[in-house]
Amino acid sequence: MGIVTSATEPTGPSEPADPYPDAHHPVATPATVLPAPHESFDDPAPRLIATDLDGTLLRDDKTVSPRTTAALAAAEAAGIEVFFVTGRPARWMGVVSDHLASHGMGIVGNGAAVFDLRSGTLIEAFPLPESDALAVAHALREAVPGTAFAVERTALFRREPGYEALEPDDPGACAPIDVLLAEDRAHPILKLLAKHPSIDPDDFLATALAVAGPHAEITRSSETALLEISGAGVSKATTLAKCCAERGVTADEVVAFGDMPNDLAMLSWAGTSYAVANAHPRVLAATVFHTASNEEDGVAQVIERIVAARRR
């Protein structure tokens, strides 16, 4: 399924100051969230923590709080591996670069690639075939006129003129989607991005699934009308499951955290899953366990309880 390389892929320029400036604020956040009833970390004991970043582990200013940093380190010290599982590309993973400790593995692009974040090495990629990307782009543009596209490859980002640049050092390499997909074939396509200026985000996703669902995995993680499109069958869950199998870790031994629709597959697969209090309503409805918001270090609160259970 994947393509493997031992070469080090350049991770490109550093991330913009806030790549998701208006994302991850779908619901009001309660002041305090108590531990969910019947929470247990004894049988089986967690061996791996998988956490989303934006809106989940990261605070709204895109920082990792001191409490979260300490909790991640405590988990590693207790023998629990940590995976960052995100929709971000590898070139935007600098936000956690100072907090890697031994947890340097990242599943990026909603499962499209696995990177060793310490070395910047691409371990494995699960690309979106060019033919499927083209079929999705044509179907979606016909169904929702005004949609603009961008292409995220293993080491390159290219966009159409109508797709707003997110990075201050954007080189301005713009072309129609047919041209973007035909160029740079030496670098596999990790994600096709589709953006619309005015449509309701949930309606945009529903339309895309209806007209192009068989060609790709389509999801979203932004509060704007921005769709993230990966290869069919590729998700945070599928790649996390593969990485866990390679380590002899079962789903029941995984604790996962998320906040947006692109986290749903991962949260469903993991044996124990938490939605942060600021999560999308669909994510809150789909998870048994809830924790405090990203602003209140909700992920850290649960990790602290996991570590405390290990010490008993």
UniProtKB/TrEMBL annotation:
<feature type="compositionally biased region" description="Low complexity">
    <location>
        <begin position="26"/>
        <end position="37"/>
    </location>
</feature>
<feature type="compositionally biased region" description="Polar residues">
    <location>
        <begin position="1"/>
        <end position="11"/>
    </location>
</feature>
<feature type="region of interest" description="Disordered">
    <location>
        <begin position="1"/>
        <end position="41"/>
    </location>
</feature>
<keyword id="KW-0378">Hydrolase</keyword>
<dbReference type="GO" id="GO:0016787">
    <property type="term" value="F:hydrolase activity"/>
</dbReference>
<dbReference type="Pfam" id="PF08282">
    <property type="entry name" value="Hydrolase_3"/>
</dbReference>
<dbReference type="InterPro" id="IPR023214">
    <property type="entry name" value="HAD_sf"/>
</dbReference>
<dbReference type="InterPro" id="IPR036412">
    <property type="entry name" value="HAD-like_sf"/>
</dbReference>
<protein>
    <submittedName>
        <fullName>HAD hydrolase family protein</fullName>
    </submittedName>
</protein>
